[in-house]
Amino acid sequence: MRLLNYRHDDQLRHGRLDGDEVVELGSGDLTLRIAEYSDSIPRGGRRVPIVDVEILAPLLTPPKVLAAAANYQDHVREGGGEPLDKSRLVPRLFLKPTTSITGPGADVAIPDLTQQLDWEAELAVVIGRGGKDIAGDDALTHVFGYTCANDISARSMDYGFERDASDAVDYFDWLAGKWGDAFAPIGPWISTADEVGDPQRLQITFDLNGDRYQDGSSADMIFTVAELVAHASRLCTLLPGDILLTGTPSGVGLASGRLLRPGDRMTVAISGIGELTNQVV
């Protein structure tokens, strides 16, 4: 099943996709119903042609947005790093603000703080049943579904004055480069876990103005979805509606020198889920 937020007749609603129609499930943000719908999704009511609605981010107010860094070996290598030894690592998780969430078709603005804006096509996990210290073998039972995500990243930060160089400056610039408004487009809908099946068998692609830059597989993750969910739950309590971005395969702009420019059209596509398109302004 595919669930989405949409606007119709100037009202925020959520529903399920059925062919070329949206079946209304209720009013308001889907985020608020994730816990309930983890047990049972209603059949719904009136139908509206999908062409008559504005599709929004499938979760507008997630409790938190977690993201995994350096979770594909080929992405680590393209950035100049050495291959990672999983046996000596834990997942590298960070947070993005909920203000970074935006939906399909929304503009992504290049902020004044950077001239080096980049893309990262990613599989996003939506938590259905919350929990703490979730066992790896049980982790996927806590997953409600999956959606496409683009972890927009500023590769440099310019605050208007010269700063001393240090590892700390580099790290916090990298982290702040993940925080911009609209730096986490997600959508166009959530494909439920039963529809997606094995999350480690998905093709992930990224096209820029119709040209293919990323073409990877979730099979190549260093840490699987289950391992990421379990580890995240050791660090903090996971809540229904939490989003977990799982890392990006190789092919980001920084590696080729082709960074984002106004007018660029970005499309993330994941097999079994759909396509997420946004324009840079």
TrEMBL record:
Q: Where is the Fumarylacetoacetase-like C-terminal domain?
A: 64-281
* InterPro entries registered for this protein in UniProt: FAH, Fumarylacetoacetase-like_C, Fumarylacetoacetase_C_sf, Rv2993c-like_N
* One of the GO BP terms on file: small molecule metabolic process
The record's keywords, sorted A to Z, are: Metal-binding
A Pfam family matched in the record: Rv2993c-like_N
* Keyword Metal-binding in record: yes
Domain (Rv2993c-like N-terminal) ranges: 1-58
The cross-references to SUPFAM superfamilies, in alphabetical order and at most eight, read:
FAH (SSF56529)
Task: List the Gene Ontology MF annotations in alphabetical order.
Answer: catalytic activity; metal ion binding
Q: Which family does it belong to?
A: Belongs to the FAH family.
Which named protein is this? 2-keto-4-pentenoate hydratase/2-oxohepta-3-ene-1,7-dioic acid hydratase (Catechol pathway)
**Which organism does this sequence originate in?**
Microlunatus soli
